[in-house]
Each structure stands twice: as C-alpha cells, then as structure tokens.
Amino acid sequence: MFQKILIANRGEIALRISRACREMGIKTVAVHSEADADAMHVRLADESVCIGPAPSRESYLNMQAILSAADVCGVDAIHPGVGFLSENAAFAEMVEEHGMTFIGPTPEHIRLMGDKITAKETALALGIPVVPGSKGAIDVAGDVKALAEKIGYPVLIKAASGGGGKGMKVAQSSADLEEALRLARTEAKACFNNDEVYMEKYLGHPRHIEIQLIADTHGNVAHLGERDCSLQRRHQKVWEEAPSPAISEKAREKLGGIVVKAIKKLGYRGVGTIEFLFEDGEFYFIEMNTRLQVEHPITEMITGIDLVREQIRVAAGLPLSFRQKDISFKGHAIECRINAEDAETFIPSPGKIQDYLTPGGYGVRVDSAMYQGYQIPPHYDSLIAKLIVYGDTREECINRVRRALHEYVITGVNTLLPLHRALTEAEDVIKGEYDIHWLEKWLALKAQKAAA
Question: Of the CATH numbers 3.30.470.20, 3.60.120.10, 1.20.120.530, 3.40.50.1010, which one belongs to the domain with range 207-451?
C-alpha cells in the first residue's frame, strides 16, 4: 500500500480524498494555489505545497509544478480528484515516468475515452448501444444536410473533445443546420482547441443515466448500479439520485451486465462511469468518464462501498474487496449540489462566508470544505458543498432532503439552497417524472410568473 499520496486538486473533493487516506493510514500532501492557502484541504493535510498563483493554468493545471512538489515530498502516488488533470493522459504518463502511480486508468484508456468520436466507436465495438449518428467527425465540406436527413431531425452537433455542455448545438430543421454547425465548431475551438464535431440524433425526452463501475488489475470488474442525473441546467448537473426512479431492476441488471462485459474486454483499471441517455425503454451511450465523479457519494450510500478507498486499493495493485454477487442496493440517496451562485440568475457569488451551519441527523452527509469566515475565491468552479441524503425509500429520502435543506445555513454569499428547497416541493420531482430538459423549462416558467 502507498505510504504518501499527493492530492492534485482542491475543495471538497480534495478533502474527501484526504479523509479516505487518513482512514487507510496513508499520509497526504496537499497542493494549493496562493488563493487557497487557507483552504480546509490544506489545513488538514500532513504536508502542503504552494504550486503557483490563483489562475488554474498557473497552479492546478501546472503539471511541472505538481510533479516537482511530488518529487520534493517523496510521494508514492498522485490522486487527481475530479476535473483539472484527472482526465489528462499526458499528465498520467508523466506521473508514471517519474516513478509514481497515477490513481486512475492507464493513459491509453484516458486518451481512448477522452475523444468523444473514438469513445463512441469503441463503445459500439464493445457491444454498448449508442445514439444513432455520424460514424466519425463531420466532413464540413461534405453533404452534411444529407447526413442530417438520414439521421432525422432534430440533430445534435457535438464537439469531439467536448465536455460540460460546451460545443453542443441543436438543429431543429435543415434551416438551422448551418448556423448550429458554425456555432458548435467555434465554441469547440475556443474551449478545446479542436473544432472537430460530430452529429447524432437529438432525443426529445431522455433521462441522463450513468452506470458506476470499478475494475482491478486481476480481471475483476463490477458495476455499482446507476445514478439518475437528469436534473440539469445547461448540461450541468444540479440534483442526482440513486437508484433512478425510472429504471426497473431488470433493466439495471441487463445494462450492468453489458457494461461489465465491455469493461472486462477493454482491460480497464480503476473507477469509471459510463453515461447513457434513456428514452422509451432504450439506452444510448454518450460518453465515459475515466475518473471519480462528483456524485459518487450517492452510490456509496446505497451500496455501503467506499469508492475512494477502493480506487486507491486498485491503484496499489490490490484486488477488489468485493465481487458483483456481494453488492446489494439498499434504499435511496439524493445529492444536491450547493453552488455559490444566485438561485435565479446562476451568476457566481464568490465572497466571504459569514454564517455556516450544516444539517445533521440520521442519513445526512455533507461533503464540503467550507467553514465560517472562509473566502470563496472567484477563480474556480462554484461548487462549495454537496448535501447527500439517504432514506429507506425515495419518499423518505425526499422528506429528509427537505428537512436537511431547512436546517442548512450559509450567509455572506448567494447559493443554490433556495433552488433545492423549491425542487423538493415540485410535484414532478416528488413523483420522479422529469427528463434532462425539465429543469430549464421549469426555471423559465418560474421566471415568466415572477415577471407577470
């Protein structure tokens, strides 16, 4: 087992990893920017190293600075967390070349799944159902309209190197196609320095379903069920739950079996998530995330499995501590992403936390690096906390979420707490009857009523 791990991340996820390491008897090194000198993950680590100024490109994305810190501190491994360098194949290679272990998949698998076109082709070859669309990148000089007609409108233009909803545009008809293509390519170039795009069928009322998986280096692969991440705004997840209220046990077993078979054939290592769109009883692959997910805690709540601990064990060469037959899904869990944003405009709200009181009680967990007096910097993602709630039934879980949100106090900055409180009262959410477009429509209707 590793003796010392450097955590190449910040905020709640860095603290989550640090806690797992401490429980496993592993020492930790926290790296931080100048803006994060007083961050909680820095305070609680065994050692800390400043790796640069506030901007991410000069600190948390500075591979040389992180590797230098790792060398100086004599670590065995680097955990990339989520975001930043977690899906950077070049960084994973550099870590291994420096004689340390990258806690994640191989660089080859990161690279394979990092390109959306290659990932889709790979999924198809592995027997995973995919959304009907172009076989590869669109040749903009070719007959794009003929391809769109063949797929059937509406169609979705997506960046080949995309993520987070960037470089995605919908064409409802042939009249919209040229403009959607132009905008998608422009945004893809600006965000990913790659203007390659591809086309696929735009599904009207799908749910966003993802399957959590983990594989070791001994040939063992297991899935830990699904998460429903359909409550989104601009392709950014707001509320997640497990299991999905729309998936039957039979469908779960079928899809889980397909995923396990595919990942075993791929020879994958570590944790990963395969994401699908689900509509009219059919699943369609959209992408694979080769890292830990922000919403991993709800899977932990319904399975009793510590995913970060298992991730570290697998990276150390140990076999999974369980098999598929050992996994049982019990109860229901919901995660509310608490961002420092205005609940109506979603404008980021950095600033100083005045009052901070987290909810408690049975089945309530808060993953956060916040504390009273903390200054939220304006340079990073606005996620400041995750409220994770468990209940024996979905109804009990929602009631507990409602109660926990009532107790949660954050002042000094705007947060999404009011939005989540409203969601627990929304009839469609209570019934579990929503798709990936529901939240934006609901928000638009709320805005219209407020303006009337």
Answer: 3.30.470.20
Phi and psi torsions of 239, nearest 5°? -140, 130
Residue 425 CA to residue 433 CA, distance in Å, equals 13
- Max distance between CA atoms of the chain, in angstroms, equals 63
Q: Encode burial over 394-421: b for 16+ CB neighbours within 10 A, e otherwise.
A: beebbebbbebbeebebebbbbbbebbb
Name the packing angle between helices 174-192 and 144-151 (round to 10°): 110
CATH assignment, 4-85: 3.40.50.20
Residues 6+ apart with CB under 8 A from 226: 209, 210, 211, 212, 242, 243, 244, 247, 252, 255, 256
Q: DSSP states of 347-372 as a string?
A: -B--EE---EE---STTEEEEE---T
Strand partners, 212: 273
**CB atoms < 10 A from the CB of 388, how many?**
23
Strand order in the sheet with 197-201: 166-171, 155-163, 197-201
The predicted-structure confidence for 207-235, as pLDDT tens digits, reads as follows 999 999 999 999 999 999 999 999 999 98
Please indicate whether residue 291 is annotated as part of the active site. yes
d(CA 418, CA 428): 17
The single residue of 16, 227, 252, 291 carrying the catalytic annotation is: 291
Q: How far apart are CA 138 and CA 140, in angstroms?
A: 6
| Helix or strand run (H / E) with residue 54 | none
Amino acid at 178: E
Question: pLDDT tens-digit profile of 395-409?
Answer: 999 999 999 999 999
Around Cβ 63, how many Cβ atoms within 10 Å? 14
CATH, range 132-201: 3.30.1490.20
Residue 103: both structure tokens together: 């806690």
User: Any alpha helices (H) in 89-132, and if so which ranges?
Assistant: 89-97, 107-114, 116-125
pTM value > 0.70: yes
Which segments of the chain have a pLDDT < 50? none
Q: What is the domain partition of the chain in residue ranges?
A: 4-85, 132-201, 207-451
> Residue 281 has what DSSP assignment?
T
